[in-house]
């Protein structure tokens, strides 16, 4: 579960779904229909996904499906939806590959339009993260960045506007090493940071990392460091990198050498970023 997603008490869920609290508890106890999050004191909290499932359960009962069978129907529907999404994902991936190989900008733009319309945000980031590591030919990278960067910066701006500023904000530095001149990698990582309810602070490619005094002034509580193959690419004369902060080292093509630079979490391949929940 994403630690930053909304959680609703049972009274609010009753208001949103029209199902009273007694019925919700009975559905949970008798049929295992919904498994809410529990607080330390035992109170039930529900996610947006729970609310959607309850609304769908209501629709099914209104269509004549016995409540005892609703969970099975919902699971079957979820499996069918997952298979359909996988097929759609693979078809869009193939379209992107063909367009890139042919250096066909109109076809690439059309495929990207479909990608952003038809897939959810996390699936989009997963696919783009994988492509970012596969592109090695200069011509393909030029056309890829020309088509994609304007879209990502636009999404980055809208995602920033959606952050709730009423709650304490967690600023996270996002930087790529001098060995890796990739705007796309940095923007994709920044979008992941925003997906987790945090504010990315982007360092321009080929710029040195800010020192700890700068980080304190920026109120950064962590960092996402993107490297070609080793976190050593960020080291200056063997100095430690933000040993007092939580950091994620994202390696595009990791090597097997041991890194002596202090970081606080396990290193990840870049593509693994979008397969995990909140890490900072």
TrEMBL record:
Coiled coil: none
SMART domains: HTH_MERR
Pfam families for this protein: MerR_1
SUPFAM superfamilies on file: Putative DNA-binding domain (SSF46955)
Keywords, comma-separated and alphabetical: DNA-binding, Transcription, Transcription regulation
Domain HTH merR-type intervals: 7-76
PROSITE patterns the UniProt entry points to: HTH_MERR_2
Domain of life: Bacteria
Protein name: MerR family transcriptional regulator
UniProt organism field: Thiomicrorhabdus marina
């Amino acid at each position: 579960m994403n630690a930053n997603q909304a959680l609703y008490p049972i009274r609010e869920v009753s208001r949103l779904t029209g199902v009273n609290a007694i019925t919700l508890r009975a559905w949970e106890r008798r049929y295992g229909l919904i498994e809410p999050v529990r607080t330390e004191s035992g109170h039930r909290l529900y996610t947006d996904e729970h609310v959607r499932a309850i609304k769908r359960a209501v629709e099914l009962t209104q269509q004549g499906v016995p409540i005892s069978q609703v969970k099975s129907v919902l699971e079957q529907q979820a499996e069918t939806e997952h298979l359909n999404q996988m097929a759609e994902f693979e078809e869009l991936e193939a379209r992107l590959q063909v367009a890139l190989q042919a250096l066909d900008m109109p076809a690439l733009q059309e495929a990207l339009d479909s990608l952003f319309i038809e897939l959810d945000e996390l699936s989009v980031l997963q696919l783009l993260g994988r492509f970012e590591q596969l592109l090695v030919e200069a011509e393909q990278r030029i056309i890829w960045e020309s088509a994609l960067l304007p879209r990502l910066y636009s999404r980055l701006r809208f995602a920033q506007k959606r952050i709730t500023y009423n709650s304490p904000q967690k600023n996270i530095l996002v930087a790529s090493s001098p060995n890796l001149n990739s705007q796309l990698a940095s923007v994709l990582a920044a979008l992941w940071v925003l997906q987790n309810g945090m504010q990315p602070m982007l360092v321009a490619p080929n710029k040195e990392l800010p020192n700890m005094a700068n980080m304190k002034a920026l109120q950064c509580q962590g960092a996402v460091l993107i490297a070609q193959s080793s976190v050593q690419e960020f080291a200056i004369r063997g100095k430690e990198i933000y040993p007092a902060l939580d950091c994620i080292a994202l390696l595009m093509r990791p090597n097997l050498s041991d890194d002596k630079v202090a970081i606080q979490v396990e290193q990840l391949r870049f593509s693994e970023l979008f397969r995990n929940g909140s890490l900072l």
